[in-house]
Design a protein that fits this description.
Elements: H1 2-28, H2 36-58, H3 73-107, H4 121-148, H5 156-161
Length: 162
């Protein structure tokens, strides 16, 4: 699921680029797409939220490890458990309210105030799905560290940049 969401996120980022390129070259030939800037924003947000869980599972999320890297043994494991528990609770909270926001927009037929008049539940759904996937990814990381005593996966890039 995380790889699928990562691929969908990448697709939306590419679509954002495509819309911007069409918009730029369209100015030269007097061709405009009404509401392109709103769709570029929707696609960028969708790409970002869909990719969150994938990047967490690959170990590519930015983490502040200044304190954690100095800890060893069971103290480090328990600090990781604490951090992942807080992250799981917060992302679950955000996922719940993202779903509630999308549901409310659908129930009240809320539309964008831009010229495109897009039903807002459509772009908000990508945020809700992305946050649900991120909450599940954090819960899975929490389980691995708390139950199996395995530290979270970290990207090789982290070692080169710190």
């Amino acid at each position: 699921m995380y790889d699928l969401f990562g691929a969908i996120g990448g697709l939306f980022i590419v679509l954002t680029l495509a819309i911007q390129v069409v918009s730029i070259f369209g100015r030269f030939v007097s061709f405009t797409i009404e509401g392109y800037d709103a769709y570029a924003g929707y696609f960028l947000a969708a790409g970002s939220f869909f990719a969150l869980a994938h990047t967490l599972r690959r170990g590519d999320h930015i983490r502040v490890t200044l304190m954690l890297s100095r800890l060893t043994g069971s103290v480090r494991i328990w600090m990781e458990v604490f951090c992942l528990a807080v992250a799981t609770l917060l992302t679950t909270y955000f996922a719940y309210y993202s779903c509630k926001l999308a549901w409310g927009s659908w129930a009240y037929n809320d539309v964008s105030h831009n010229i495109d008049a897009t039903p807002l539940w459509i772009p908000q759904l990508s945020m809700a799905l992305g946050m649900i996937a991120l909450a599940l990814a954090f819960a899975e990381e929490f389980y691995h560290v708390a139950r199996r005593r395995e530290l979270p996966v970290q990207s090789d890039e982290l070692a080169r940049t710190e």
